Amino acid sequence: MIRLVRIIMKYALIAGACSGLAQAVIHSLKDNFIIFAIDINPIIHNLYEKDDNIRAFICDITEPAQIKAVKMEIGKQTTSLDLLINFAGIVELGSLIEVPPAKFERSVRINVIGNYHVTHSFFPLIKNGKGRIIVISSEYGKLLGLPFHSFYTISKHALEIYADSLRREVKGLGVRVITIRPGSFKTEMVDSIENQFKRLVDETDLFKKPLMRMEKMMKGEIKNAAQPQKIIRTFHQAIYKKKPKIVYRIHNSLKMKLLNILPPRLQDWILNKFF
């Protein structure tokens, strides 16, 4: 007698699904999850068209109406989610004095408010599945304010507070909120950082030398960037472990961690040596 075993698939929503880190994680999960992948980039359909367990949607996470439309489509396939991860984010670099306010606003809108919109909209499904929400912060989410990194750092600090508050609010509902702080990885975001520094050095009126020194320092960090596949083990712990950590750190810079624990005046003194 042949016994048929029914495999029960889980459901995951992954935003920012075109990013290098997201692609690595999605391909590691697709055998165990039906994945709803969303991204503003139309290339998402080409990336995942050959994968039966991945359903791709074009969606701007800063537009609640678009999120609502995607939610309606997903709602036709499931009433619960086991996992929500939002990789969507941008890095905006530059001086707090010289960069137009619109860039700061864009950084917060995508990195913080976009996260909020996605989680707020899909939380009923996560609650139904007693699932997990993974918030993608950064090592900059707990670092001091570095010159010319302010927009990104501010948004990630805000995201850390958001994750902490959300975790404490929903704990009693059977939903876990986990924060992951990646360091430097070889993705399109790293390419963006290099290109932005070149442009900033060319355009600045006030900070040419400091920006050139910062560019040199960042090239050293980028040189040591890890391959995206190295994050898989950490994500699997956060996703599958019965009692996951509240925060996971991946490939964080030792220099930055040491600098972060020093008193503010000593931090300023060291930074002044560079900038």
Arithmetic mean pLDDT: 87
- How would you write the strand order of the largest sheet? 3-2-1-4-5-6-7
Largest beta-sheet details: 7 strands, parallel
User: Would you identify the CATH architecture?
Assistant: 3-Layer(aba) Sandwich
Q: How far is it from the N-terminal to the C-terminal residue, by CA? A: 75 Å
Strand content: 5-15%
Tally of domains? 1
Estimate percent helicity: 40-55%
Please provide the count of β strands.
7
Whole-number radius of gyration? 20 Å
CATH topology: Rossmann fold
> What is the 3D shape?
globular
Q: Which regions are unreliable across 5 or more consecutive residues at pLDDT < 50?
A: 1-6
Structural class: alpha/beta
What keyword list fits this structure?
alpha/beta; about 280 residues; about 15% strand; 7 strands; disordered N terminus; Rossmann fold; 10 helices; seven-stranded parallel sheet; globular
Which helices and strands appear, and what pairs or packs with what?
Layout: E1 10-15, H1 20-29, E2 33-39, H2 44-48, E3 54-58, H3 64-75, E4 83-86, H4 101-129, E5 132-136, H5 150-170, E6 176-182, H6 188-203, H7 208-223, H8 232-240, E7 247-250, H9 254-260, H10 264-274
Parallel strand pairs: 1-2, 1-4, 2-3, 4-5, 5-6, 6-7
Helix pairs in contact: 3-4, 4-5, 6-7
Provide a compact summary of the structure.
The chain has 275 residues and is α/β, with parallel strands linked by helices. The chain is built from ten helices and seven strands.
